[in-house]
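Work Package 4 report. The design task specified in the project plan requires that, given a folded chain encoded as C-alpha cells, an amino acid be chosen for each position. We show below one input record used in the internal validation round.
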C-alpha cells in the first residue's frame, strides 16, 4: 500500500510540474491561441476517461494489474522528454494524448491493486492513505516547477527534463517495490471479457453506485471554474491565482486519511454524499458574494474536503460490489462514467456562464447538485 502511494506521489510530482507550467508555456512560450489551448485541454482531460475501460478490462483479462499499471506509468514517463521536441499543435496534441492514454491505462489497475491488498473493512482507510500520498505529490510538483522556472536559464526545458527524471523514478519504484498479484477467476466465475465487464452493471449495488457517481458528476463544476469564481468573488490578485489549487490540495491531503477511516466506520456512501454537501456549501459561500477575508480559506477547505470524502471513498464503495476477477473493469466503469459526466458538466457550465453570467450559472449548478444529493440519499443500499 505504501509502495503504491509512493509511486503515485512521485508520479504526481512529475505530472503536476508539467500541468503547472503548460498553459503559460503553450500560450506565452509557443504562441498558441486560446482556442488551440482549449482543444489541447480537451484532449488532456478527455482521453484518459475513455481509455480507463481498456486498462481495467486488460488488467482483469490478463490477471496482471501491476503490469498494466506499470505500462501506463512508463508511457506517461516517456511523454515528458517528448515535450522538449514537440513545438506544433498536432505534435503537442499527440504527446498529451499519449500521456493521458498512460494515465487511463494505469488508473483502474492501480485502484484494483489497492482494493485487493486491503481487507474489505479497511478499504476506505487504504484509499485514503493512497490519495493523501498522491495529493502530496500534487502539492510538491507546482512548487518545484516554480523554483526551477525562477532559477534556470531555459526554464521550460528544465522543468520538462526534471519531470521526466522524476517520472522514471516512479516507474522504478513500482517495478522494484510494489508486489504483483495475479488474480485467478473462481471456478464458477464468468469468463473475463469486455461484455462481462459491462454486464457488471446488472449488479444492483454497483449500478446504484455508478448511477450516483454519474448524477453527482453532472452537477460538479470543474476545479478551474471554482477557482475563477473564487477570484471573481474575492478580487484575489492574478499573481496569487496559481496558489489556489494548492489550497484545495492541502485540504485534500490533510483530510483524505481521516475521512477514509470515517467511511469504513459509518458507511462509505454516507461520507461520499457528505463530501458533495461540502461542495454544495462551497457553492453557497461563493453565491453570497461576501468579501470576508476568510472566504477563500473556507471555500478551499470545503473544496478539498469534497475530494477527500469522494475520490478514494467512491472506489472503496465500488470495490465491494465487484468480484476480484472483474475488479479492474468494474472500477473503470464507475470512473469512466463519473469522468465523462464531469466533462459534460464543465461544457454545460461554461455555456451557462457565457449566456447567463457566472452567478446564475453557479446557482443552477447548486440547485441541481442539491437535487442529485437528495435523490442519491433516497436510494437504499443493499445489505447492512
Amino acid at each position: 500500500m505504501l509502495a503504491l502511494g509512493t509511486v503515485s506521489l512521485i508520479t504526481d510530482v512529475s505530472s503536476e510540474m508539467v500541468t503547472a507550467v503548460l498553459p503559460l508555456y503553450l500560450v506565452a512560450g509557443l504562441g498558441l491561441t486560446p482556442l488551440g489551448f482549449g482543444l489541447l485541454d480537451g484532449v488532456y482531460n478527455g482521453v484518459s476517461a475513455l481509455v480507463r475501460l481498456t486498462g481495467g478490462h486488460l488488467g482483469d483479462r490478463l490477471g496482471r494489474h501491476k503490469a498494466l499499471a506499470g505500462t501506463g506509468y512508463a508511457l506517461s514517463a516517456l511523454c515528458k522528454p517528448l515535450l522538449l521536441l514537440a513545438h506544433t499543435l498536432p505534435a503537442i496534441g499527440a504527446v498529451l494524448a499519449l500521456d493521458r492514454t498512460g494515465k487511463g491505462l494505469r488508473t483502474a489497475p492501480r485502484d484494483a491493486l489497492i482494493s485487493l491488498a486491503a481487507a474489505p473493512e479497511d478499504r476506505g482507510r487504504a484509499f485514503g492513505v493512497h490519495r493523501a500520498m498522491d495529493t502530496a505529490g500534487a502539492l510538491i510538483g507546482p512548487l518545484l516547477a516554480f523554483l526551477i522556472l525562477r532559477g534556470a536559464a531555459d526554464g521550460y526545458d528544465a522543468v520538462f527534463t526534471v519531470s521526466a527524471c522524476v517520472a522514471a523514478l516512479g516507474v522504478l519504484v513500482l517495478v522494484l517495490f510494489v508486489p504483483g498479484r495475479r488474480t485467478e477467476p473462481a471456478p464458477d466465475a464468468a469468463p473475463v471479457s469486455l461484455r462481462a465487464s459491462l454486464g457488471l452493471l446488472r449488479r444492483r449495488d454497483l449500478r446504484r453506485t455508478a448511477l450516483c457517481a454519474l448524477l453527482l458528476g453532472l452537477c460538479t463544476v470543474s476545479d478551474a471554474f471554482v477557482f475563477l469564481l473564487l477570484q471573481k468573488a474575492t478580487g484575489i490578485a492574478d499573481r496569487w491565482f496559481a496558489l489556489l489549487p494548492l489550497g484545495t490540495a492541502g485540504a485534500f491531503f490533510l483530510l483524505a486519511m481521516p475521512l477514509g477511516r470515517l467511511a469504513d466506520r459509518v458507511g462509505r456512501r454516507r461520507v461520499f454524499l457528505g463530501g458533495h454537501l461540502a461542495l454544495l456549501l462551497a457553492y453557497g459561500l461563493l453565491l453570497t458574494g461576501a468579501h470576508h477575508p476568510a472566504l477563500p480559506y473556507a471555500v478551499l477547505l470545503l473544496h478539498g474536503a469534497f475530494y477527500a470524502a469522494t475520490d478514494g471513498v467512491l472506489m472503496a464503495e465500488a470495490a465491494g460490489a465487484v468480484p476480484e476477477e472483474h475488479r479492474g473493469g468494474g472500477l473503470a466503469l464507475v470512473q469512466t462514467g463519473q469522468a465523462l459526466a464531469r466533462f459534460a458538466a464543465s461544457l454545460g457550465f461554461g455555456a451557462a456562464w457565457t449566456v447567463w453570467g457566472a452567478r446564475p450559472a453557479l446557482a443552477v449548478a447548486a440547485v441541481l447538485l442539491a437535487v442529485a444529493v437528495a435523490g442519491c440519499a433516497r436510494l437504499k443500499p443493499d445489505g447492512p
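Residues 1-178 form a domain with the Growth Hormone; Chain: A; fold (CATH 1.20.1250.20). Validation will be extended to a larger panel in the next phase.
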